[in-house]
Amino acid sequence: MSYAMQLLDSYPRTISLDATLLASTIDALNDCAQACTADADDDLSEPDVAEMVKCIRLCLDCADICTTTSSVTSRRTDFDPRVTMPLLEACIAICRSCGDECQRHAPMHAHCRVCTEACRRCEEACGEFLMITN
């Protein structure tokens, strides 16, 4: 069981959202942030680093947006969908862009393949969570 799920299970108030979906989204956000951070670092170690600049920038942006979204969605007190929804939409957009760019490099770099998978999973999880917050 993930830490997100354990913390949601121990939350002292009633959660009006699907806790399993929320935990899955938080886990996907954290996994994506970590994968993007690691991929950007791996990209910097490639001999063709000039070819990786766009990938590095998108990975860093994606990691920042996923980290922020994870932090906000982890706070259950006074949940405000007007704040959470735009963050989820931003996550979907950056995960799509970063995933697309990483996918371009995936045939040559295994770390980009892993990052692509994390971005796709996060994009999907944020989309599912966004649907229930509407």
Structure commentary:
It is a single chain. By secondary structure, the chain is an all-alpha fold. The chain has a single domain (19-133), classed as Substrate Binding Domain Of Dnak, Chain:A, Domain 2 (Up-down Bundle), CATH 1.20.1270.360. It contains five helices and no strands. Helix 2 packs antiparallel against helix 3 and helix 4 (81-105) packs antiparallel against helix 5. The longest helix is centred in the first third of the chain and has 26 residues, at 19-44. The relative contact order is 0.18.
Short description:
With 134 residues, this protein is mainly α.
Enumerate how many helices there are, as a single number.
Answer: 5
**CATH topology description:** Substrate Binding Domain Of Dnak, Chain:A, Domain 2
How large is the share of residues in beta strands? under 5%
Shape: elongated
pLDDT under 50 segments (min length 5)? none
Please write the CATH class name: Mainly Alpha
Gyration radius, in Å: 15 Å
Q: Could you tell me the number of beta strands?
A: 0
Question: Which range best describes the helical content: under 10%, 10-25%, 25-40%, 40-55%, 55-70% or over 70%?
Answer: over 70%
Note the gap between the termini. 27 Å
Helix- and strand-based class? mainly alpha
Topology as H/E string? HHHHH
CATH architecture: Up-down Bundle
Count up the domains. 1
Mean pLDDT: 91
Tell me the major beta sheet. none
